[in-house]
């Protein structure tokens, strides 16, 4: 009963979450969870850390070759 009460309280605050996954279809919910994980790996802060050298190389002006 306490666990259900906590779940209901969490659901009442759904607007505070970035993602909502409804677990009424396991395979669909799993796919959505995988998508959330993938999306979080692609946010600017993560990508900037991961590819710092490449980004710097791409945005640094290169001398013109004649």
Automatic annotation (TrEMBL):
Keywords in alphabetical order: Kinase, Transferase
InterPro entries: GK/Ca_channel_bsu, P-loop_NTPase
UniProt keyword Kinase, yes or no: yes
Annotated Guanylate kinase/L-type calcium channel beta subunit domain residues: 3-39
Classification lineage: Bacteria, Pseudomonadati, Pseudomonadota, Gammaproteobacteria, Moraxellales
Gene3D superfamilies, per database record: P-loop containing nucleotide triphosphate hydrolases
Gene Ontology molecular-function annotations: kinase activity
Protein name per its UniProtKB record: Guanylate kinase
Pfam families in UniProt: Guanylate_kin
């Amino acid at each position: 009963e306490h666990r259900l009460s906590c779940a209901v309280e969490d659901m009442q605050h759904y607007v505070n979450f970035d993602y909502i996954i409804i677990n009424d279809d396991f395979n669909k919910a799993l796919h959505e969870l995988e998508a959330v994980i993938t999306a979080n790996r692609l946010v600017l802060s993560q990508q900037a850390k991961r590819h710092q050298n490449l980004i710097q190389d791409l945005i640094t002006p290169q001398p013109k070759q004649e």
